Amino acid sequence: MNAVTGTAADTAQRWQGHHRRLLDGLSASGALTPDWRPSFEAVPRHRFLPERIWRYGAGGYVPVHRAGEPGTWWELAYADEPVVTQLDDGTAGGPGEATSSSSMPSLVARMLAELEVGHGGERVLEIGTGTGWNAALLVHRLGDARVVTVEVDPSLAERARQALASAGRAPRVVWGDGAAGWARGAPYDRVLATCSVLRVPGAWVAQTVPGGRIVVPLHRDVWSGGLVSLTVQDGGLAQGTFTGRAWFMPLRADRLPSLPVDSATGRRSATGPDPARITEPGFCAWAFARLPDITMTYADEDGGVRRVWLTGRDGSAATAAGYGRTGDGCGPLEVWQYGPASLWDRVEAAWRAYEAEGCPRQGEFGLTVTRDGRQEIWLRDPGRVIG
Q: What pTM, to 2 d.p., does this model score?
């Protein structure tokens, strides 16, 4: 018995209802299109999950074993949520950070739709094999010979290869650095990244045919959720717009350390935009270009107040929360800033510039990438570069 099997009766009883409810929900929401539903029906997610997965609980990630907690395991397997499948790159004794996961099914469906594949003619390069589920969906639609998937972690690559084989799928699974693509299999009609990148590698552009598409999540510190769809043009240029949010773990080469924050340097202020406004997609896209070195996280507190936390790599930090609203403007704020740089002041200045532009929507921002790796963020027109 391997990591993705159980008794036939147990499997049939537990997964079919969960699977149907998930797909019906994805279809009803519009995330799962009719042309991709047959692949999702034929490729159940649980067959690509390990026996031990993790959920986030008090104090960090808590393991969930299929044998010990079958009810919780199956609920997680078929929830429209990412499922953490590895901590600390698979090493023991680490800090307990998630380093690999099975992506949220609605996001998987939306990104596959963004690829705009036909019915078997395109060749696809996937960056970030992970569990192998996404590759299996592609193979069902396109065939084994038309899918290449690259994974940097050798243990994940091997486990995915085994899971794919158990499911009767056999794409080319390559152990290597996804940033380099896989030139031996080029050219490709489509490139799909299931990890986020600071910069779209030029190799992906160079390995894609003119007219081909590249769908990739971007991250900078301030926003780890910008999905872009690029079309490759003649002359080795790829261009497209931001199409939505898409949080993924970063390409391993893009992981960057940060210095600790000195809490003794706190200073208080009470000016700036409503924290709820700066977490909207439009401003996040603006900040992606203008505030690339600030990390932003946020959560809603009692009364619907949104609190944001900002951190910099130099040990700077800030937190801001509104206490009530006044019309369409911002309510009273409580802001604390720490460390050598005043991060909230930078956010406030960026907000004023964003307002002066008329608060553009996320879809008004775009990206240009060349085959030598040059990358430009623009607003409304490729000629108007903002970052």
A: 0.86
